[in-house]
Amino acid sequence: MQVMNRGLRLGLVVLLIGLSLLAVTVVRANSVPRLMSFSNEETGATSGWVLYPSFLMFDRDFSVSVRAGNVVNVYILDEAGIEQWHDDQSVDAVLVYENISDGIFSEPHKGRGGYAVLVYLPEDDVTYIKVAFTFSGFEKDMWLCSLTTTIAGILLLSVILLSTKIKKQKVFSYKR
């Protein structure tokens, strides 16, 4: 009987963790979109490459907003692309926006992980740059994890309760 109580407690804990993750995922999806901004609007920059530091990309749909004083090229690098840029200054971008000075681009999720923004200023002139990311929707990986944990908790509780019911029926049938 003590083993069943431990099993019930374990099943309840797994179910509560799954439901908690599910609630957090829903709240995050309905919250104000996350905004990350990289810019040098205050000081300006001249021609060449500007690498903005790594940031954590969420597993959600997002839009990229680019504003610049001149025409620029914007590259979004994943972790491998960042390493490649540091090694040999070559660009292997997951997203490329070339010859733009203003625009908003909607993108599907790329997966959670470290990314960086690389901007090329072809004009030899002082300019401002602002690149902003706005995230929306469910985080696909958290959604999947929370649903899996919730279903595992429900299945665990069901198996334990069914085995308890079967054992009780066997005990009653032996007593008669």
* Spatial gap, N to C terminus: 22 Å
Rg, please?
26 Å
Per CATH, the architecture of the largest domain is Sandwich
CATH class of the largest domain: Mainly Beta
Mean pLDDT: 78
Number of strands: 6
The gross shape turns out to be elongated
What's the order of the H and E elements? HEEEHEEEH
Total domains, how many? Answer: 2
How much helix, percentage-wise, in residues?
40-55%
What is the CATH fold-level name of the largest domain? Answer: Jelly Rolls
How many helix segments? 3
The largest pleated sheet is described as: 6 strands, antiparallel
Give the class from helix and strand content and strand pairing: alpha+beta
Descriptive keywords:
alpha+beta, 43% helix, 6 strands, Jelly Rolls, 176 residues, six-stranded antiparallel sheet
Characterise the protein shown here.
With 176 residues, the protein is of the alpha+beta class. The chain folds into two domains: 2-28 and 141-168; 32-136, Jelly Rolls (Sandwich). It is built from three helices and six strands. The protein has helices at 2-30, 79-88, 140-175; strands at 35-39, 48-57, 61-77, 95-107, 113-121, 129-136. Strands 1, 2, 3, 4, 5 and 6 form a six-stranded antiparallel sheet that branches. The relative contact order is 0.26. The model has no long low-confidence stretch (mean pLDDT 78).
